[in-house]
Amino acid sequence: MPVTRIVNPNDEITTKPNARTRIEATQPDAMPMGFTSLIGTLLTPKGPAAYLKLSQGRVRRVQTGDIIDGARIVAIEDGELTLTRGSDTRAMRIPGH
């Protein structure tokens, strides 16, 4: 799993995103409002983690075992998060990934 570097939001960013990133970051309706969306995955010293944009617009960092909307997160991989609720298993993917 690739490691994502976390930067301080107050730091000045000196690199520009490549053309593909700019295009995919601005896709209309790629991340519909009113739904929970996976927006990032990363590897931490405690294991994989993910960032979710919740239906209310807030962003939450989660890890395996956390519960979101009544479903348990059972796996986090590069660009994908797997949830189970009872016998139902579903995967969330980063839009455009």
TrEMBL record:
Region described as Disordered: 1-22
Source domain of life: Bacteria
Species per Swiss-Prot/TrEMBL record: Thalassovita gelatinovora (Thalassobius gelatinovorus)
Name under which the protein is recorded: Type IV pilus biogenesis
